[in-house]
Amino acid sequence: MTATHPWSRYVAIGDSFTEGIGDPEPSSPGGSRGWADRVAEVLAEATNDFAYANLAVRGRLLQQIVDQQVEPALELRPDLISISAGGNDILRPGSDPDEVADRLERAVARLRTYGATLVLFASPDVGMTPVLSRVRSKVAIYNENIRAVASRNDAVVVDLWAMRQLRDPRMWAPDRLHFSALGHHTIAREVLATLNVPNELEPYSPEPMHPISWRQARVEDIGWAREYLVPWVIRRIRHQSSGDHVEPKRPLAGRVRE
């Protein structure tokens, strides 16, 4: 199936979600693949001169994305842009989802300057995720704002909140904060469907999960907290980021596969 579409230059901006963290691939730039790379691979099937750049960096807050990625993205003159930003802000205590959305809208208006198709994301439902479940109401408010921002700025929204399949634990990486390879694959299919681009990415047909005992679940939770949660909290206390000293994996618009 040929992926017919009108775009020839795609630029993705954002944080770890767009960088592809949770979907390790040693042969990919930066060592991660992710949904954006998968989408670009499908889009590239339709034209020999398709170009793709990914400026996203893990751990970035919204203002950092605005300051470091918006203008470089526009300089690449894309006709398709995706932006997922603000999620790291929402996780921070005291953050206001309305204020974050106001800043996002200013970035969205700037990204629309040259008429590119713009893709936004409503965040997934984190109600079943440890720690993140505490900010579920803020995420829901932010999502409503994102839908309004998209409507006012003629953008499209990939609604991850509505994707019930993302509630499957197998969609998530071991850190329970990022998506697994399967999760990124599933999101890539949703992005392409939102853009009305035909593709041959296989849908997910899960096998039934075997139930685990309460004791086993608690052991797994303790192991997860020790390996992932504690380092995450320590970084927040020290005002450090997982993206410190990390550069964009695809800073220039080029061929998806060399």
TrEMBL record:
Pfam families referenced in this protein's UniProt entry, alphabetically: Lipase_GDSL_2
The organism's place on the tree of life at top rank: Bacteria
Organism classification: Bacteria, Pseudomonadati, Pseudomonadota, Gammaproteobacteria, Lysobacterales
Protein name: SGNH/GDSL hydrolase family protein
GO MF annotations, alphabetized: hydrolase activity
Domain SGNH hydrolase-type esterase: 12-184
Enzyme class name: hydrolase
Annotated keywords: Hydrolase
